Every structure is written in C-alpha cells, then in structure tokens.
Amino acid sequence: MLPNESFATIVVVHDDPHLLTFVANVLKPLHIGVVGIESRMACLDRCRKQPPDALLLDLMMPDDEGMHLYRQLCADPALSRIPVILISAIDRDLFFSYHQFSCPKSPHALPPPRAYFEKPVEAEDLISCIHSLIPERKVS
Is 2 inside any structural domain? Predict the structure, then answer.
C-alpha cells in the first residue's frame, strides 16, 4: 500500500523481508501505509524529508545498524518526536542491561522506546500498539 497523507505511515527498518511482509499484512486492514527501509542512512534521510507517524525498528541488524539508528533518532530534536517501536530477538531487560554495560561512558542516556517487542511479534499486540501511538483519525 502506498502512503497517503490522510492516513498513517509507518517506516519499518529491517534486514528481514519477512518482517516487512508481516507488518504490511497486519496493518493493511487499518489502511496504514508501510514503507520498508533496509539501512540507517536511508531511514534518516526518509524521516527528515517525510517524518512517518511511527517507526518500527529491528535492533538486531548487521553492524549494530539498529542501535546506531536508535541513538541518532533520539539525539536529533526533530526526529526524536517520531514514536519508535523496537523489536528484537532478545529480552528487553537483557538487551538494555547489555547496552548499558557495553556503553557505560555514553554521554546521553537513551530514552526508552515507545514500545518494545520480542520476536516473534503478535499481530494483536502490534495493532494495539499502533492504535495507542497514532491519532484515531489516521487509522481506520
């Protein structure tokens, strides 16, 4: 589905085409546009030009791309307003414990994401999350 200004658009940053297909199929009945992006730089460019209503980010991408992107989104005042949903193959607490341990001298603590899902994501949970993040007028 192509994005339409009257409806919501979600950017899915991933390295797994199955995730994009899953999200697109789950959100299609809600008339939410889904844009798949496979790299950090392409995502930043897209978000600066056309900020989405929400961003679904797979953290476990090669070369820590997902984590680097999340840091950049949080650090940019304009982009930090975009609601970010993180998904990962590992437990939320374990992930953030590791992240704090591996980056103890980080000058800025990362804010928590708007939502965090462990893979596999349940369709009902994703729909509920999207409804809580996006204005009702943009979701049918």
Answer: no
Model confidence pLDDT, tens digit, residues 89-125? 888 888 777 666 455 555 556 788 899 999 999 999 9
Q: Does residue 60 fall inside a structural domain?
A: yes
Q: How many domains does the chain have?
A: 1
What does the chain look like in DSSP terms, one character per residue? ----TTS-EEEEE-S-HHHHHHHHHHHGGGT-EEEEE-SHHHHHHHHHHS--SEEEEES--GGGHHHHHHHHHHHSTTGGGS-EEEEESS-HHHHHHHHHHH-TT-SSPPPPPSEEEESSPPHHHHHHHHHHHS-GGG--
Examine residue 89 and state whether it is found in any structural domain, yes or no: yes
Q: Is residue 1 part of a domain?
A: no
> Model's pTM, two decimal places?
0.86
Per residue in 75-90, pLDDT (tens digit) is: 999 999 999 999 998 8
